[in-house]
Amino acid sequence: MQKLRSKTKKKILLLLLAGLVIGLSKSRGTTRRILRAIPKELEKIDREYLYRALREFKTRRLIEYKEQLDGIISVTLSRNGERIAMRYSLDTLVIPTPQKWDKKWRLVIFDIPEKKRAGRNALRDKLRDCGFKEWQHSVFVYPYPCENEIDFIIEVFDLRPYVRYAEVTYLTNEAELRLSFNLIH
């Protein structure tokens, strides 16, 4: 995977991933008008640096330029750019903790083939980072809603066919899990 060393370049990719379409034009006045309409986060980035970063992204095939009928060129993420931006987004992923536990357990169960070992190990590491407890070697437990986050993680690691998500109301040895998640009332 290509890596970006600059936090600003990561921020540009994440803004593009969020659906921001950066528009450029051959006319400096039009470009200024477009850049003024973009979010505050992008405004903080020096314009010359932004243009250099976009040229680098184009060379690395992370973005695509599409010219519109009015002459404005829109900048969007390529498939490769989306994958890289999703990785950076994954690094900051946090599962929200509700005030009250709904008394359901979330299970992530997987059977990932050996040829996908790197993805399997990355999934295990990310689940642990998010606070999941390893119940068995390929079964992780968490007490709070997290289906969207799990979908995102398995999409990033390209493991959809091998991972299952379940919500259950009863587990054996539940007291031990409640204790480990500090859910004893």
Tell me the CATH architecture of the largest domain: Orthogonal Bundle
3D shape: elongated
Number of domains: 2
Q: Uncertain spans, ≥5 residues at pLDDT below 50?
A: none
Overall mean confidence score, pLDDT? 81
Proportion of residues in helical segments: 40-55%
Radius of gyration: 21 Å
Strand tally, please?
A: 7
Please explain how this structure is put together.
The protein has 185 residues and is an alpha+beta fold. The protein folds into two domains: 7-91, Arc Repressor Mutant, subunit A; 105-180, Alpha-Beta Plaits (2-Layer Sandwich), CATH 3.30.70. Helices cover 43% and strands 18% of the residues. The chain has helices spanning 7-17, 28-36, 40-43, 47-59, 79-91, 117-129, 147-156, 174-180; strands at 22-24, 63-67, 73-77, 105-110, 133-136, 139-142, 163-168. The strands form two sheets. A four-stranded antiparallel beta sheet has the order 5-6-4-7, with helices on one face. Strand 5 (133-136) and strand 6 form a beta hairpin. It is elongated, with a radius of gyration of 21 Å. The termini are far apart. The model has no long low-confidence stretch (mean pLDDT 81).
Features:
185 residues; alpha+beta; Arc Repressor Mutant, subunit A; Alpha-Beta Plaits; 4-stranded antiparallel sheet; 3-stranded antiparallel sheet; 8 helices; 43% helix; elongated
